[in-house]
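Q: Got one fold?
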Amino acid sequence: MQIRRLTSADVPACQELSADRGWLREDRRWALLIELAEVYGIDAADGGLAGAVTLTRYDTHAAIGMMLVAARYERQGFGRALMSRALAAAGGPVCLRATDNGRPLYEQLGFATDGSSVTYVGTLSGPRPDLPPTRPAWPTDLPEILRLDADAFGADRSRLLRRLAGFGRLRIAAGGYGASWRNGAHNLLGPVVADDVATAMALCTDLADGPIRLDISSYQPEFEAWAADRLERGARVSLMSTGGTPPGDVKRLFTPFTVATD
């Protein structure tokens, strides 16, 4: 079973693999991950990809995501091979988000559950009373956004955020910032970093435009309750790590960049 590094030419095959497992096709996320992270795949004998996984490195840890094996290749060792490759490449602490289907394998590989995350989708509605003001971010705000992010995330993800500034919408507030970017049929709201829940709500409200997606961890019960009143609840996944829990202040990390990069 040969594992290779995927390239931009493999984006359509990655989308087909996602669709095979009932996931969204997410052309922008796959393209972004192939550009800025490491995406490993196994070619299928009958065409396309038998499986794929992504690895995003930071200066303190790494994140694994998009762990997918085509249905016709299940239980043949492809998932374990891809995970072993990604873990070897990471060479240190790793975090990921696990479906119920994938969690047993991750536990066998030494991952422990740290919490959970729920997806919410729909059109954000409801009043905006007494929420802090936000404003569009300008290029001159990028250093402050990078500072806020590094302080809350506990690692340098400036490469991702600089790229995001080129195609997403960013807003800034006192003690926080948020981003929105198109990914398939939804605008993904993330990352959202804020000193308090009211600022996170304000950023999401002001960024929302059409159908949106929020991924909210169990560390944010008040924020999740607010989203649950306004959006449709989707799947719950487990937050897992090995080699130590990721750094950062979970109380200020309201949504991830993506569930693949955390």
